[in-house]
Design goal:
The chain is α/β, with parallel strands linked by helices. 39% of the residues lie in helices and 19% in strands. The chain contains ten helices and seven strands.
Length: 232
Amino acid sequence: MKILAVFAHPDDESFGPAGTLARYAQTGHKVGLFTLTRGEAGSVGISKTLTTEVLAGRRTCELHHAAKILGINYLKIADLPDKKLAELPDHTGMKMIQEELDFFKPDALITFHEQGISGHPDHQAVTRWLLELVKNQPKTISLFLYGVLQEQTEHMPRRRLLPMTLVEVTHRIVVSNYLDTKIEAIKAHATQEESWQRFINPLEKFKISAQWEYFKQVWPVPEKNILLHDEF
């Protein structure tokens, strides 16, 4: 299987479905990542002290490191403006993503839930673009939206997260064997340490809440099924 994850920022892949990406990459599947910005508008911790050019360079290097840790086979980083994706004409982002679809030819696509996990407009824009694009793709391509459940957000009370509902979930991927890899990938984003210290600590509690990753299949529209799938 060929899986392409599409996200707005360096670190979205690691804070997001990194366990799933690692699981598929390390079990013989080809996993790609397309990141649409270089994260130059970050405002966490040390990021506040760096110029946009320097921060973009650092976050690009961090993303390469995280991708290597996860076993990602293919990485493409675009240079769209961070924190301004929602202001761009939709066709700008959609054209870039379509070019990656034509090149990588994935069987499955992964991005964030429509709410964007944290409500970030960049996350929501990328999801909107993908939801529109898949309508014109072969039916053999599936689109999965990654989200967190309410019980998982309770582990991170200091961060505003928008959970998906359990009734939306079609796939629950067991990633307990890949949590150490996910944590290592998260820590690769050194400029974001202020965020990941809150995200993964206390560590034991994080490992309990993060042992499953949840997805909603939106394309092709699945038949109603009360069973949760553990494979795409």
